[in-house]
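Lecture 7 notes: from sequence to structure.
We start with the chain below.
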Amino acid sequence: MACYFFRLPGELRNKIYGYALTTARPLLHAADRENVFRLWCYTSEAEVGPHHESNQLRFVNRQLYAETRGLSIQYNDLLFTNFKDAAVFLETYKHVERHMKCIYIHGSGRTKKLWEDDTDVRQVASLLRKHPHIALRVVLQHDGPNDEWTLPRVISHEITIKQTHAYADKFFVDEHREPLLWDVMNQLESARFHATPAVFPANLRFLFMDELFDPSLLRKKIEGNESVMRVVVPKVRDGVDGWVRLMAQAVEEGV
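Predicted structure tokens for the same chain:
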């Protein structure tokens, strides 16, 4: 039986492929039951897990396989669970780098959970420098915007990974910034890179887990933490008000 779809002009078929293969969420890079890594579509931000493999069109026949192979990467953002998986993928599929738009790394609250060593981080950083059109978004899975320790933790991420301190400058009063920041980083067990730090370009942002920011709830948690009120708040620009205001900015823009 003839397939009338293939009688359409190639340009029109490509448009249809774009509509058919574009997903609302990034494609998840994860292993199947046989430990083979594939790209998956998933339905819930709260439970990132395989739902069904992307691009089912390629299983219909050989021509659809040939015409749609690799298009999922071109039409969608990609989601990894750590830097190492992202680095391995990018090294393996160098030919698709030019099609990538945005990479998400859905990590845990502490930076050391995102990588095993700084080699993976440097590799991803190198890719972003070579391809400034690719945006890297690190989603801090366990860092809700309404937790009083989220902003200090993300500030430590900014320093250890991005090698910048814009939010630290906004957060701490000048004379207290350096010693208090190192104190916070030690408490949160943030990883550091002494030998060959990976300096990320401006296309890296830290984003917060999908949770509605409630300024009054954050204020309540800050004011309800006696040690935070006694030790940290006096060293923060504009105190609790400045803390809540900067958190709102970080939620809106990313860090």
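Points to note: The first helix runs from residue 10 to 21. The chain is about 45% helix and 15% strand.
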